[in-house]
Amino acid sequence: MSVGTSQSTAGVFSNTRTVTVPKLVLPDVLKPNTRLKMDGLEFLSAIPADAVPVAFFDPQYRGVLEKLAYGNEGKVRGKRRSALQQMPEEAIANFIRGIDRTLIPSGHLFLWVDKFHLCQGIHPWLDGTRLDIVDLLTWNKGTFGMGYRTRRRGEYCIVLQKQPRKAKGVWKIHNIPDVIQEQVSQRDHPHSKPIDIQGQLMAAVSHEGDFVIDPAAGSFSVLQAARNHGRTFLGCDLNG
Ligand SMILES: C[S@@+](CC[C@H](N)C(=O)[O-])C[C@H]1O[C@@H](n2cnc3c(N)ncnc32)[C@H](O)[C@@H]1O
C-alpha cells in the first residue's frame, strides 16, 4: 500500500472525537462568556485541575522589545503596546504551568509567539509541564511590520498537547492549512489575533459547549471565536 492513500491514513487520524470532558464546577468568581478583569495567574489557580480541553495563550512578552530597540516604544502603536502590562519570562512559564494543570489529558494549548521566540525556542517555558509541541501554524497578517532586515508579516501559533499525545480520536478537523491569511483590525487592541482560525482550531479539539480558556485575552478574540462555534469561553485580562 502506498503512503498517502486514504487507506494508509485511515488508521492515523479520524473525524470523530472520542474524548470526554468531566463536568466543570466553577467558583462564583469565574463567570463564563464574559470579559473578566483579573490577573491571569489568579484566574488559572481558580480552575480545577484536568478540567478543560482547550486553552489559548498569547503572552505579553517583553523579550523582543528588550532585544530590538526599534525606537518606536512609547510612540503611535508602540505607545499602546508599551502601556500593556509586560510579562517577564518567569511569569510566562508560570502561566504555561497553570494551563498545563487545568488541561485534560490530551488537551491542547494554542500558544502565540513571534519570530524571535520561535527561533530562540520556548523549551524553558515548558519545563516541569506535560506539554509536547505537536504542530505549528504560520499566520500571514498581511501587514508590513518592523525589522532591521526583513519586515515582519508573520506570527506563529505553536500547538501543544498535554500527554498522552495523540491525534486519532482527539483532533477531528483535517482541512486546516498550516499557513493562514486573515486580516485583523487592531483598532481595539494592538495584539488582536485572528478570530476565524482560532475558531477552527478550537472546533478541531473540542465538542460544542466545551470550555475554552484564555488567561490573557486582550481584545477577547477567543471569546468571539468561542461564540461563533458554540463553545463556552472562560477568560480574563488585567484590563478586562
Ligand atoms: C498579547 S495580548 C493578548 C491579545 C489577544 N490574544 C487578542 O487576540 O486580543 C496580552 C494581554 O495580556 C494582558 N496581561 C498582561 N499581564 C497579565 C496578567 N498578569 N493577567 C492577565 N492579563 C495580563 C495584557 O493586558 C494584554 O492585553
Number of strands: 8
Q: Give the overall pLDDT as a whole number.
A: 89
Low-confidence stretches: 1-7
How far is it from the N-terminal to the C-terminal residue, by CA? 55 Å
- What is the total number of structural domains? 1
Summarize the entry for a quick read.
The protein contains nine helices and eight strands. By secondary structure, the chain is α/β, with parallel strands linked by helices.
Features:
240 residues; Rossmann fold; eight-stranded mixed beta sheet; disordered N terminus; binds S-adenosylmethionine
Report on this model:
This protein is an alpha/beta fold. The protein has a single domain (29-135, 157-177, 189-237), classed as Rossmann fold (3-Layer(aba) Sandwich). 28% of the residues lie in helices and 21% in strands. The protein has helices at residues 6-10, 40-45, 63-67, 76-83, 89-102, 115-120, 123-126, 195-204, 221-228; strands at residues 36-37, 52-57, 103-113, 131-140, 154-162, 179-181, 211-214, 232-237. It has an eight-stranded mixed beta sheet with strand order 1-8-7-2-3-5-4-6. Strand 7 (211-214), helix 9 and strand 8 (232-237) form a beta-alpha-beta unit. Helix 8 (195-204) packs across helix 9. The chain is globular, with a radius of gyration of 18 Å. The protein binds S-adenosylmethionine. S-adenosylmethionine is lined by residues 39-40, 58, 60, 84-85, 87, 189, 191-193, 215-219, 221, 236-239.
